[in-house]
Design goal:
Blueprint: E1 4-5, H1 15-19, E2 25-28, E3 31-34, H2 44-48, E4 54-55
Antiparallel strand pairs: 1-4, 2-3
């Protein structure tokens, strides 16, 4: 199951984008968006998010 971003919690800091090893996260309207086909379910983004906006 790919990572999911809670858009209400996302602050747009882009920490997850720079940490994602599979380049599955991009920014849209200043919020993180996960491309499910690229996500490898590693959880790096969950740990990188200071707002706790990402879950697996």
């Amino acid at each position: 199951m790919p990572a999911e971003v809670n858009q209400e919690k996302c602050t747009g800091c882009e920490s997850c984008v720079s940490e994602c090893p599979s380049s599955a996260i991009s920014m849209t309207d200043s919020k993180a968006v996960v491309k499910a086909d690229n996500c490898v379910d590693c959880g790096v983004c969950v740990d990188a998010c200071p707002a706790g906006a990402i879950s697996l």
